[in-house]
Structure formats: C-alpha cells, structure tokens
Input
Amino acid sequence: MLSRVAETLYWVSRYIERAENVARLINVNNMLMMDLPKGVCAGWEPLVDIIGARQAYQENHTDYEEQKALRYLLVGKDNNSSILNSIMSARESARTIRDVIPRDVWEEINLLYYYVKDNQNEGLSKRGRFAYLKKIIESAHLIFGSLDATINHDQGYTFIRFGSIIERADMTSRILDIRSETLITTEEAKPYENIQWISLLRSLSAYQMYRQQMGVRVQRSDVIEFIMHSEVFPRSILFCLYELKSLSEPLLNSSGIIKVIDKTIYDLKHKDVRALKNGYLHRYVDQIQIDLAGIHNELAESYFLKTPELQE
Output
C-alpha cells in the first residue's frame, strides 16, 4: 500500500472519531447543565480545554458564554477541532482516495459534511441541539460500521482502525483529565458530586458498562479505575492500547511501535490509579498523552511519507 494512502486513511478515521467525540461531549455537557443548579456546573470552558484549544479560543473570545463556546466547538472556522472542520478535513482527505474506500462510505461522509454545515443554526439552538448532535454521532457510527462491513480487512483497514483507536484513547485521557480537574467539590456542590462523575462516564458512553463491571455505586476511585484499566470496555485507555498493539503486530517493521506501546501498557497496568488525586492524576494523564503522541510519531516515521506533528 502507498504511504500516502495509508496516511490518508489514518487521518480520515481520526477526524471522524474526533467529530463524534466532540458531539458527544457537547450533548452530555448540555444535559449536565440542566441537571445541576446554577453555579455548580463549570459551564462550557472545560470543553474548550478538553480539545486543547484554550489559547486559540482566548485569542478571539473574552469569555465562555454559551453561544460563543458552542459556535467555536460546533462550527468555529478558527478551531481545527470543531465538528465542522473535522468533518471537512475528513471529506477532503477521503476525496483523494475515493478509489480505495467504498462508494457508500464516501457518500455518507459527504452527506454528513453538508448536514453539519447547512444545519448549524439547529445545533446552536436549544430546541434543535440534541437532534443535530444525535445525527452527527449516528452518522459517524454508520461510517465506521460501513467500513467494517464493506472494505477489505487488509493493511488499509488496519490504518483506519489505528486512527480511530488512537484518537479515542487520546480523547478518553483528555476527558478524564479535564473533567476530574474541574470537578466542583464545594460544600454546596457535594450533593451533586455523584452526578458529575456520572456525567464523565456518559461523556464516554460508559455509564451502563461501568455499572455492569463496577456495580451500581458511582465513586471517584472506581470511575478512574474503569476508565483507565478496564480490559473489556472499548473506550478505556488500556483496552485501546491493547487494540493498538494487536493492529501493529501484523505490520512489517513494527518492532519500534510495539516497543513504545508495550512500555505504555506496562506503565499503566502497574500504576495504582485509584491513589491518584488532585495534581497527581493530572500529571500522570499528561504522561499518557505524551506516550500516545509517541505512538503516533513512531507510526508516522515507520509508514508515512513524512512525520507530521500531531494535529490538534
């Protein structure tokens, strides 16, 4: 397979995964703000932090008022990780390899782009926001499902899977980091602490699976353990790392990337994540994000034409 094609497939899936994750984040944050009294929820600022865009956001905005933050996250032209820009990047990349991907997949990506662009006012309104975001999430699932069912499961599919899984692991680490960092723990907010941890789980579509594996009670240490160490939940960091290793093993010249993944797995498995509190959790998740960037860079050096910087 041509390096150019492998790289393009990788980024198409990363962009689609990113758009789906941001849509889910906005949806859950919207519900959290309705569940909590005014002053208890941290508002929209944490979402800008999760996508790593605080500095860029503050260049053009003085506050995190709902409409400003929402527009930035949904369709912000100056936000590389906005849903619209992510889908647009996926569409432009997919257009260059239309002979490689199934026609139905290309058409669905194209339809999703025009839906996001043409119906952005629905996403910005309280009345239409839920349906708008639900459509984006369902379309992303349809794209990945169609790829799984209709494309040859060869090297190209490996790079598609690799892109979606590494983006998923990165977003899981960001959600855990920022959501736990911005958790409001004042006496006034104490009765609502449980709701805030449930919101973190729902941001990852993890609430039902958490209850199956960890029990009905939702508490800090169990949530962190589940999100970081679960070997059966597909959005946990450890599960994603195992998946990345499995995808790497059949590739030629993969010893370098497997070595980086193995080290990250070893460090994570042997870390008592339940004991990580306050700044210690933040620093450890920062290290995981550095390790994920290292996995990306090793993949790029081994299989792509050049080594691009990890795109935010």
About this structure: The mean pLDDT is 90. The CA atoms of residues 177 and 282 lie 6 Å apart. Residues 3-303 form one domain.
